[in-house]
């Protein structure tokens, strides 16, 4: 299983873009990159996922480098409600197991 | 509303008293899974199920049982709870996409279990 490396914490000013990096240098060709977030002790929330191409949805954008060894989650206009732990996960091909790791604690400040 | 429903939200029990945490989803998802979350250890998978009557162990299955008799339900059973099973538990479900690739979990709101 590919492991991921994320910064422990990051700060972002409200209204600015939040860019959360993730390294996954051992990712294999069939593995997707997923991003989830967990607000306080609520259940984790799916944000976005991708394989090779950049992806965008109503919540965020996902930029994956050409060699697929790293990615960045972008929240274009962070709000206080985006304060959460963000998990970058590389999913196994058969999707049996997800490894959540420690994630990045994003603090959005007024 | 599409959701995963866990019950109860909070539970305090005594060592050795069998308990069941229920999980139900209304999205016709094939895949369901249980996680526990502990400070400093993150989310760890207990059991998962790829479909009805198909279950398998995750990373920390000891002391737990599951069953998948119906597609929508995936109860977590603690036959003889112990204090080290005090934790925050999450149930999750997902569609299985093309060739088994899922398209994102939906998590329940969590069950905070305390075993004394």
Structural features, described:
The complex is a heterodimer of chains A (110) and B (116). Chain A has 110 residues and is mostly beta strands. Chain A is built from no helices and nine strands. In chain A, strand 3 and strand 4 form a beta hairpin. Chain B is mainly beta and 116 residues long. In chain B, 0% of the residues lie in helices and 49% in strands. Chain B is built from no helices and eleven strands. In chain B, the strands form two sheets. In chain B, strands 2, 4, 5, 6, 9, 10 and 11 form a seven-stranded mixed sheet that branches. Chain B is globular and about 40 Å long. The mean pLDDT of chain B is 92. Classes of the chains: A mainly beta (110), B mainly beta (116). Chains A and B meet through strand 3 and strand 4 of A and strand 4, strand 5, strand 9 and strand 10 of B.
Please tag this protein with its features.
heterodimer; A: 110 residues; mainly beta; 5-stranded mixed β-sheet; 4-stranded antiparallel β-sheet; 9 strands; 0% helix; globular; B: 116 residues; 7-stranded mixed β-sheet; 11 strands
Q: What's the story with the biggest beta sheet of chain A?
A: 5 strands, mixed
- Per DSSP, the total helix count of chain B is 0
- Number of helical regions of chain A: 0
SS-based class of chain A: mainly beta
Residue runs with pLDDT of under 50 for 5 or more positions of chain A: none
Structure class of chain B: mainly beta
**Share of helix among residues of chain B?**
under 10%
Oligomer: heterodimer
User: What is the rounded Rg of chain B?
Assistant: 14 Å
- Which chain pair shows the most residues in contact? A-B, 21 and 32 residues
Overall mean confidence score, pLDDT of chain B:
92
Main beta sheet strand tally, sense and closure of chain B: 7 strands, mixed
Low-confidence stretches of chain B: none
SSE order of chain B in H/E notation? EEEEEEEEEEE
Radius of gyration based on Cα positions of chain A:
13 Å
| Overall average residue pLDDT of chain A | 90
Q: What fraction of residues of chain B sit in β-strands?
A: over 45%
User: How much of the sequence of chain A is in beta strands?
Assistant: over 45%
């Amino acid at each position: 299983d590919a492991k991921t490396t994320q910064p422990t914490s990051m700060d972002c000013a409200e209204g600015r873009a939040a860019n959360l990096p993730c390294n996954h240098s051992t990712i294999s060709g069939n593995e997707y990159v997923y991003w989830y977030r967990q607000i306080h002790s609520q259940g984790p929330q799916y944000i976005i996922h991708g394989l090779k191409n950049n992806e965008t949805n109503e919540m965020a954008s996902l930029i994956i480098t050409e060699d697929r060894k790293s990615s960045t989650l972008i929240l274009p206009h962070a709000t206080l409600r985006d304060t959460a732990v963000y998990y970058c996960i590389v999913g196994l091909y058969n999707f049996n197991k997800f490894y959540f790791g420690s994630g990045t604690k994003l603090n959005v400040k007024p | 509303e599409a959701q995963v429903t866990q019950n109860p939200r909070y539970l305090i029990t005594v060592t050795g008293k069998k308990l069941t945490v229920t999980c139900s989803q209304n999205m016709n998802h094939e895949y369901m899974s249980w996680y526990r979350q502990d400070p400093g250890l993150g989310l760890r998978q207990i059991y998962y199920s790829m479909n009805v009557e198909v279950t398998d162990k995750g990373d920390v299955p000891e002391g737990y049982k599951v069953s998948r008799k119906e597609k929508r339900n995936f109860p977590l059973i603690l036959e003889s709870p112990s204090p080290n099973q005090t934790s925050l538990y999450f149930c999750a479900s997902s569609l299985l996409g093309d060739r088994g690739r899922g398209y994102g979990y939906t998590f329940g709101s969590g069950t905070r279990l305390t075993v004394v």
